[in-house]
């Protein structure tokens, strides 16, 4: 297994770890009041999520630079991203840190796009992530990081950057989903 694929598998392995942290460590355990009430679980989740996000960036760069692109990587890299991001978003809704409507819209978009990709692959068409899909993922990752930090340091400026990023990620998610649908609508509509 090459390095990019190992990074992808490592990212998948971080998902149950962050879930375990959220479900085992109480919200009020070891709260750091100097940082706007950050709980230990938020700090640990932030560190794991940051590391996982960096592996996402590096596995793609390494794979392209050293021509290590594999079918395994093409298949599992987007799955690892969605597992990580959607799990974090669900945990943030569970702890009332993220808006449930925004999260449901983003997860629904992912399910629809994955269905469109499967349908296209049955017709021999491979659909890679486009620039808007990548922008959606980046916005989601930054939103999650700021949500985990309880909007630090922007909370002191009265700027809800965490919520702004969450809703921008939601809008980019819907926009990129419409683009995928426009590209692949012929596969959906052919049997109507």
Automatic annotation (TrEMBL):
Protein source organism: Faecalicoccus acidiformans
GO molecular function, one term: CDP-diacylglycerol-glycerol-3-phosphate 3-phosphatidyltransferase activity
Record-linked Pfam families: CDP-OH_P_transf
Family under the similarity heading: Belongs to the CDP-alcohol phosphatidyltransferase class-I family.
Organism placement in taxonomy: Bacteria, Bacillati, Bacillota, Erysipelotrichia, Erysipelotrichales
EC number, as in UniProt: 2.7.8.5
Major localisation: membrane
Protein name: CDP-diacylglycerol--glycerol-3-phosphate 3-phosphatidyltransferase
Catalytic activity: a CDP-1,2-diacyl-sn-glycerol + sn-glycerol 3-phosphate = a 1,2-diacyl-sn-glycero-3-phospho-(1'-sn-glycero-3'-phosphate) + CMP + H(+)
Segments traversing the membrane: 12-31, 43-63, 83-108, 164-182
Domain of life of the source: Bacteria
Keyword Magnesium: no
